[in-house]
Write a structure and sequence with these properties.
- The structure is a single chain.
- The chain has 16 helices and 18 strands.
- β11 and β12 form a beta hairpin.
- α2 runs antiparallel to α4.
- Strands 10-13-14-9-8-15-16 form a seven-stranded mixed β-sheet, with helices on both faces.
- It is about 45% helix and about 15% strand.
- The chain has two domains: about 220 residues, Aldehyde Dehydrogenase, Chain A, domain 1, CATH 3.40.605.10; about 190 residues, Aldehyde Dehydrogenase, Chain A, domain 2.
């Protein structure tokens, strides 16, 4: 672990090149409206095969950009994408099938169904923290729905992004899927184009800009954002289970995960035991504290700028009285930060106000669960919320009285991997859902189709409105007051 990871930049793609690619995808988007499930599955399968053919190259690329270990590349990048592909290919024929809809009282005699149409030309802007996973997973859903796609990966992981670009160029004609490199200027130039749908993963601040840009074209959006995902460890919790789960979920990818536990509320009665269990879990996961900065399983912080930001948050907290329970070591030369637990962090410190997005975890002692719920509700709605406890009534109360994009009980992070669950945020943490059927629907327009028959019930409501017809209409309206069963 000697090579430093530095700030990465990438030259921007000229706007005229982006526009030409966008225009070239117009005719193809129209043609794909009539594509079959078999044709779409074939495209996903070709992408899968190209991905697996580059396994070692991906290991090398991730090692260069983030010093991510091959095992973590497999577990957090390849596994979710391959699972998404397998799940989608197995279910796509059923998802594409028109869904018949039963008539209501006022539409008896008419046939209706919901058809799923491709949205058309879509833009996917992916982040740097999981640069393969969060680029290809939405691409799978977009292909399943029959769209053309322009991909914009992150400039912060240039080696991985370059490899993705080579793979996309090998598998797809650019009139169907094209990938462009660059920084914010490239993203802004792409957002100026009238895409039919924009799928963005990133921060809430940038998400607002993406939504504003899409609104100029009345384009639909899926925004996968973030926030300060809270965790509650109740006095009834299995402490060993909570510590093991949280130390894994927080420090995988060095905390650079949008659904990582951001801070932990721990009941005063179990705080000492919880802290000791966390220390033991860290020893099992990352070895002796003195050697953790050099542990090959500890992913680097993505850039020197991000390392400086995290160190500043840590320094501010400790200067104001926060106590480091374990960790706190920073190696700026290699962009490494040891897994760090803190307590006594002031409520108005940056660590408690900003999304941390790094391997720093504040522990907050509590004795009143209602106060914790109130505190969570005073902040923006988070992307995830985690509750550890064996008291079902208290857990139910937390879930009922809070709002978050997703939630786990006695677990964390893994709800992202469940292909039959919607993954997404709410308000500040995101708009829309992804994964599996929900991802397919995100990139589809649900078109209502009604077919008339021999019965023409609308004649009842057409002029001339004779006294007899008016009385009949009134009787139909009165029927609507009856219970629906």
């Amino acid at each position: 672990m000697t090579e430093a990871v530095s700030d990465n930049t990438s030259s921007d793609t000229a706007p005229d090149i982006l526009r030409a690619a966008f225009e070239a995808q117009g005719p193809r988007a129209l043609a794909l409206r009539s594509s079959t499930a078999a044709q779409r599955v074939a495209r996903i399968r070709a992408l899968r095969d190209a991905l697996l053919a580059r396994r070692q190259a991906l290991y090398d690329a991730f090692a260069h950009d983030m010093r991510k270990s091959p095992a973590e590349v497999e577990a957090t990048e390849l596994l979710p994408v391959l699972d998404e592909m397998r799940h989608t290919m197995g279910h796509l024929p059923r998802w594409m099938r028109p869904q018949p809809v039963r008539p209501t009282l006022t539409t008896v005699g008419l046939k209706a169904q919901v058809q799923h149409q491709p949205r058309g030309r879509v833009l996917i802007i992916a982040p740097w923290n999981y640069p393969l996973n969060l680029c290809l997973a939405p691409l799978v859903s977009a292909l399943a729905a029959g769209n053309t796609v322009i991909l914009k990966p992150s400039e912060m992981t240039p080696t991985v992004s370059a490899l993705l670009g080579q793979m996309i160029a090998e598998v797809f004609d650019p009139s169907e899927v094209a990938l462009f490199h660059g920084g914010p200027a490239t993203s802004q130039a792409l957002l100026a184009l009238p895409f039919d749908h924009v799928f963005f993963t990133g921060s809430p601040a940038v998400g607002r800009l993406v939504m504003a840009a899409a609104a100029r074209h009345l384009a639909s959006v899926t925004l996968e954002l973030g926030g300060k995902s809270p965790t509650i460890v109740d006095e009834s919790a299995d402490i060993a289970l909570a510590a093991e789960n949280l130390m894994w979920g927080k420090f995988i990818n060095s905390g650079q995960t949008c659904i990582a536990p951001d801070h932990v509320f721990v009941h005063a009665g179990v705080r000492p035991a919880f802290v000791q269990a966390c220390l033991a879990a860290l020893e099992r996961l990352y070895g002796p504290e003195a050697e953790r900065l050099r542990n090959p399983d500890l992913t680097a912080i993505v850039s020197a700028r991000h390392t400086r930001r995290l160190k500043a948050l840590l320094d501010e907290a400790t200067a104001r009285g926060a106590r480091v329970l374990v960790g706190g070591q920073v190696d700026a030369a290699t962009n490494a930060i040891a897994p760090t637990l803190l307590e006594g962090v002031p409520d108005d410190a940056g660590l408690m106000q900003e999304e941390i997005f790094g391997p720093l975890l504040p522990i907050v002692e509590f004795s009143d669960l209602e106060a914790v719920i109130d505190r969570i509700n005073r902040g923006p709605k988070p992307l995830a919320l985690y509750v550890f406890g064996r008291d079902r009534d208290r857990t139910r109360r937390v879930l009922q009285q809070t709002s978050s994009g997703g939630a786990c009980v006695n677990h964390c992070v893994v709800h992202y991997a469940h292909g039959n669950l919607p993954f997404g945020g709410v308000n500040n943490s995101g708009i829309g859902s992804a994964h599996g059927h929900y991802g397919f629907k995100a990139f589809s327009h649900e078109r209502a189709v009604l077919t008339g028959g021999a019965v023409r019930s609308e004649k009842l409501f057409a002029p001339p409105f004779t006294p007899q017809r008016q009385a009949l209409i009134r009787r139909v309206v009165d029927l609507l007051r009856l219970p629906p069963w």
